[in-house]
């Protein structure tokens, strides 16, 4: 399943996208639990912002991860298959925000202070 870094900390200008990715993350975790002990492996791929044409100006955004680098790192993580969550280094900043007590700061970085 493919969720997103926005499953961990939402981007306020894309509330529906962020919410569906969070729901997909929850669904993936539930399936993984339900299928534990079976022959089915449930993996979650949670990409960060990647330089693609998904959103306007994303392909040229210097803050987004280059697509080639994302693919190379993801393929290496999939081959290792040590963790059911496929998280490239760049997405660990938002994915660990709540655990590390930085959620409000990361939310503010993504969405600006209002």
Task: Give the topology, please.
Blueprint: H1 15-34, E1 44-45, H2 67-80, E2 85-86, H3 92-95, H4 103-111
Parallel strand pairs: 1-2
Task: Give structural notes.
The protein is mainly alpha-helical. The protein has one domain (5-109). It has 4 helices and 2 strands, in the order αβαβαα. Strands 1-2 form a two-stranded parallel ribbon. Helix 2 links the parallel strand 1 (44-45) and strand 2 (85-86). The mean pLDDT is 92.
Strand order of the largest sheet: 1-2
The helix-and-strand class reads mainly alpha
Average per-residue pLDDT, rounded, comes to: 92
Number of domains: 1
Written as H for each helix and E for each strand, in order along the chain, the element string is HEHEHH
Tell me what portion of residues adopts beta-strand conformation.
Answer: under 5%
Q: Roughly what percent helix?
A: 40-55%
What would you say about this model in short?
By secondary structure, this protein is mainly alpha-helical. The protein has four helices and two strands, in the order αβαβαα. It has helices spanning 15-34, 67-80, 92-95, 103-111, and strands spanning 44-45, 85-86.
Spell out the key features of this protein.
41% helix, mainly alpha, 4% strand, two-stranded parallel ribbon, single chain, 2 strands, 4 helices, globular, 114 residues
């Amino acid at each position: 399943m493919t969720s997103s870094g926005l499953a961990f900390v939402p981007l306020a200008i894309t509330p529906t996208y962020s919410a569906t990715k969070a729901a997909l993350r929850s669904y993936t975790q539930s399936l993984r639990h339900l299928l534990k002990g079976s022959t089915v492996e449930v993996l979650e791929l949670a990409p960060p912002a990647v330089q693609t044409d998904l959103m306007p100006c994303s392909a040229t955004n210097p803050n987004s991860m280059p697509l080639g680098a994302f693919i190379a790192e993801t393929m290496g993580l999939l081959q290792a298959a040590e963790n059911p969550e496929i998280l490239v280094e760049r997405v660990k900043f938002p994915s660990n925000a709540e655990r590390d007590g930085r959620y409000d700061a990361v939310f503010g970085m993504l969405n600006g202070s209002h």
